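Re: your question about Pyruvate/Phosphoenolpyruvate kinase-like domain-containing protein

S., sorry for the slow reply, the queue was backed up all week. Below is exactly what I fed in.
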Amino acid sequence: MALLGLPGSEESKIKKSLTSPADCIVYDLEDSVAPNRKGAARELVFDALKLKSETGPELAVRINAVGSGIEFDDLNVILQSPHLDTILIPKVQSARDIDFVCRLIELIGHERSQPHVRIIASIENALGILSLKEIATASPQRVDALLFAAEDFCADMGLHRSPAKTEMLYARSAVATTAHAYGLQAIDLVCMDFRNPEVLVKECVNGRDMGFTGKQAIHPNQIETIQNTFMPSEDQIQRAKKIIAGYEISEREGKGAYGLDGLAIDLPVYKWALKIMQRAGTPHIHAGSH
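Result:
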């Protein structure tokens, strides 16, 4: 899954985004918008939501942080849209931040979009990491994903962001693990070196191997690489099919674990294969069924 973030105040980029191959477009009302452009950005984003198509990307809006003093102004505008899919809440520190937005969705959300507006909780500081469980479970109906924001996290902790990213290992692992524990998507950090495709590939592989299910993008050229890397490869899909078929045949024969290509295949490996097929969007048909 690729999330492309765009400044809500730049009309030309907003128009181009509606034909983007990204899975989700995030129109930003927060850090990328100057204080004197907040009002204009809200109107531009509201108008952009009207142009949503059934075959286009999911449309999300990143509001200003709860407690900033202007988050209500953002919500008062965007929640009037019948086309809003998702709200990205930045700098989430506790379940109270989620609760505040959920209450406003219920109170002033458009009757058409209100029942299904989802929330992405952006984790950007140490307190957010320590509150991951309560954030993830604050609203099972609406919280859909946890997102890790590296730049803000490093600023909060006073860390130097290194190419190896070992300074963020605990925080990223905590976000990905918590997301999986509660059935949420896990969205990894932005690759700031957007002109270097090799760096992006390495970051995508690293994030995928840590358990992230998607990644943020800041440039359209990053989208295809992110999508291709986070989707299972054809080799993985074919191996998963072999594992599933062999395990189910072995199980019906009362054997359970079996050998495949010199490796033992047991229940955990079978569950891994099912996950691969799920990520690939391929329906699983039990071996021998018609």
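Strands lie at 2-7, 24-28, 58-62, 86-89, 118-123, 143-148, 185-188, 214-217, 258-260, 263-265. The CA atoms of residues 20 and 222 lie 12 Å apart.

Happy to talk it through on Thursday.
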